[in-house]
Amino acid sequence: MARLGSWGGHPGGPDPHHVNADGTAHQHRHLHPAPTEVLSRRSLTALAIAGGMLPSPTALVVLLAAVALDRIAYGLALIGAFSLGLATALVVVGLVALRARGVVAGRMSGRTARLVPVLSAASITLLGLVLTFRGFVQI
User: Does the pTM exceed 0.90?
Assistant: First the structure.
């Protein structure tokens, strides 16, 4: 969904550089995309569906055990329940993140709010490097 911006990209009115062939200035509006939510209910639903369809090693073990015991319907029911539970857990965590984002955003200053994602990414990168280094040392 788009919203209308300022005249000719200039808040004061039409741009004097936009002139018709007969020498009269004309006005036009630029369309700017409307801001979208980073994590919306629609994206949470997509996350739940994707998480529920994600292949799981545990689900494979359950299915193989069900086939070996000749109880395929029971195995499929267990996998369905597991997938539903995973999807529910993902939605609940997403909803908590939405609520927490609103609470935290109201309490942070602009500079702090810009630093949090950078510090978070740096800490995850550092943790990954430390774990990688420890893995190489053990080899």
Answer: no
